[in-house]
Specification:
This protein has a domain at about 25-110: SH3 type barrels (Roll), CATH 2.30.30. It is about 25% helix and about 30% strand. The protein has helices at about 1-15, 110-129, and strands spanning about 30, 40-45, 50-55, 60, 65, 70-80, 90-95, 95-100, 105-110.
Protein backbone atom coordinates (compact mmCIF):
# COMPACT_ATOMS: atom_id res chain seq x y z
CA UNK A 1 0.00 0.00 0.00
CA UNK A 2 2.88 2.35 0.74
CA UNK A 3 4.09 2.01 -2.86
CA UNK A 4 0.65 3.00 -4.23
CA UNK A 5 0.58 6.11 -2.01
CA UNK A 6 4.05 7.11 -3.19
CA UNK A 7 3.10 6.67 -6.84
CA UNK A 8 -0.08 8.70 -6.33
CA UNK A 9 1.86 11.53 -4.68
CA UNK A 10 4.39 11.61 -7.53
CA UNK A 11 1.69 11.63 -10.20
CA UNK A 12 -0.27 14.43 -8.55
CA UNK A 13 2.93 16.44 -8.00
CA UNK A 14 3.94 16.09 -11.67
CA UNK A 15 0.47 17.05 -12.84
CA UNK A 16 0.42 20.06 -10.50
CA UNK A 17 -3.04 19.16 -9.29
CA UNK A 18 -4.41 20.14 -5.93
CA UNK A 19 -7.80 19.51 -4.44
CA UNK A 20 -9.72 22.76 -4.52
CA UNK A 21 -13.24 23.31 -3.32
CA UNK A 22 -15.33 24.85 -6.10
CA UNK A 23 -18.03 25.86 -3.62
CA UNK A 24 -16.29 28.89 -2.14
CA UNK A 25 -18.76 31.10 -0.35
CA UNK A 26 -21.48 28.46 -0.30
CA UNK A 27 -22.45 26.12 2.50
CA UNK A 28 -22.80 22.72 0.90
CA UNK A 29 -22.96 20.25 3.74
CA UNK A 30 -25.39 17.95 5.47
CA UNK A 31 -25.56 17.77 9.25
CA UNK A 32 -27.01 14.61 10.73
CA UNK A 33 -28.19 14.99 14.33
CA UNK A 34 -26.53 12.90 17.04
CA UNK A 35 -28.45 9.75 17.96
CA UNK A 36 -27.77 6.61 19.96
CA UNK A 37 -24.30 6.71 21.55
CA UNK A 38 -23.12 9.63 19.40
CA UNK A 39 -22.01 12.68 21.39
CA UNK A 40 -21.78 15.13 18.48
CA UNK A 41 -23.51 15.75 15.17
CA UNK A 42 -22.16 14.11 12.02
CA UNK A 43 -21.28 16.60 9.27
CA UNK A 44 -20.65 15.54 5.68
CA UNK A 45 -19.66 17.77 2.74
CA UNK A 46 -22.26 16.07 0.52
CA UNK A 47 -25.97 16.79 0.21
CA UNK A 48 -28.98 15.07 -1.32
CA UNK A 49 -29.39 15.91 -4.99
CA UNK A 50 -25.66 16.36 -5.63
CA UNK A 51 -24.19 14.83 -8.79
CA UNK A 52 -21.38 12.35 -8.03
CA UNK A 53 -19.21 9.89 -9.92
CA UNK A 54 -18.82 6.32 -8.67
CA UNK A 55 -15.18 5.30 -8.03
CA UNK A 56 -15.75 1.55 -7.47
CA UNK A 57 -17.64 -1.28 -9.12
CA UNK A 58 -20.66 -2.19 -7.01
CA UNK A 59 -23.16 -4.96 -7.60
CA UNK A 60 -25.92 -4.86 -5.01
CA UNK A 61 -29.45 -6.19 -4.66
CA UNK A 62 -31.17 -3.00 -5.83
CA UNK A 63 -28.62 -1.68 -8.33
CA UNK A 64 -25.33 -1.98 -10.18
CA UNK A 65 -22.71 0.75 -10.59
CA UNK A 66 -19.48 0.90 -12.56
CA UNK A 67 -16.38 3.05 -12.17
CA UNK A 68 -16.95 6.43 -13.78
CA UNK A 69 -20.74 6.22 -13.79
CA UNK A 70 -22.55 9.42 -12.85
CA UNK A 71 -25.25 9.28 -10.19
CA UNK A 72 -27.26 11.45 -7.83
CA UNK A 73 -27.23 11.24 -4.04
CA UNK A 74 -30.78 10.47 -2.96
CA UNK A 75 -30.30 10.12 0.81
CA UNK A 76 -27.52 10.32 3.40
CA UNK A 77 -27.75 8.29 6.60
CA UNK A 78 -25.66 7.45 9.66
CA UNK A 79 -23.99 4.03 9.37
CA UNK A 80 -24.73 2.93 12.94
CA UNK A 81 -25.58 5.43 15.71
CA UNK A 82 -24.58 2.87 18.36
CA UNK A 83 -20.93 3.02 17.21
CA UNK A 84 -20.70 6.35 18.99
CA UNK A 85 -18.46 8.99 17.45
CA UNK A 86 -16.68 6.45 15.23
CA UNK A 87 -19.75 6.22 13.02
CA UNK A 88 -19.66 7.55 9.45
CA UNK A 89 -22.12 8.67 6.77
CA UNK A 90 -23.42 6.38 4.01
CA UNK A 91 -25.25 7.49 0.88
CA UNK A 92 -27.89 6.02 -1.36
CA UNK A 93 -26.78 6.94 -4.90
CA UNK A 94 -29.19 6.63 -7.84
CA UNK A 95 -27.38 5.40 -10.95
CA UNK A 96 -28.58 4.18 -14.33
CA UNK A 97 -29.11 0.59 -13.13
CA UNK A 98 -30.84 1.27 -9.80
CA UNK A 99 -29.74 2.60 -6.42
CA UNK A 100 -26.53 1.59 -4.65
CA UNK A 101 -25.46 2.10 -1.03
CA UNK A 102 -21.98 3.71 -0.93
CA UNK A 103 -19.39 4.92 1.55
CA UNK A 104 -18.11 8.47 0.82
CA UNK A 105 -14.73 7.03 -0.27
CA UNK A 106 -16.54 5.17 -3.08
CA UNK A 107 -17.79 8.29 -4.87
CA UNK A 108 -16.60 11.82 -5.61
CA UNK A 109 -18.33 15.08 -6.52
CA UNK A 110 -18.70 15.30 -10.29
CA UNK A 111 -16.53 18.44 -10.40
CA UNK A 112 -13.53 16.65 -8.83
CA UNK A 113 -14.08 13.17 -10.27
CA UNK A 114 -12.19 13.62 -13.52
CA UNK A 115 -8.92 14.32 -11.68
CA UNK A 116 -9.48 11.42 -9.28
CA UNK A 117 -10.27 8.94 -12.06
CA UNK A 118 -7.20 10.08 -14.03
CA UNK A 119 -4.97 9.61 -10.98
CA UNK A 120 -6.48 6.19 -10.30
CA UNK A 121 -5.76 5.05 -13.89
CA UNK A 122 -2.17 6.33 -13.61
CA UNK A 123 -1.62 4.50 -10.31
CA UNK A 124 -3.04 1.23 -11.66
CA UNK A 125 -0.90 1.52 -14.80
CA UNK A 126 2.23 2.15 -12.72
CA UNK A 127 1.51 -0.77 -10.41
CA UNK A 128 0.93 -3.17 -13.31
CA UNK A 129 4.00 -2.13 -15.29
Amino acid sequence: MRRAEQIAAEILFKAGQQTKHTTEGKTMATTLAARGRMTKDLVTPYHAGEQVVVLTNERQKHGHARVGEVGTIRRIIISDPNDGDSTFPMAFVKVRRGTVFLHPSEFAPAAEAAAQLWARRQIEAALHS
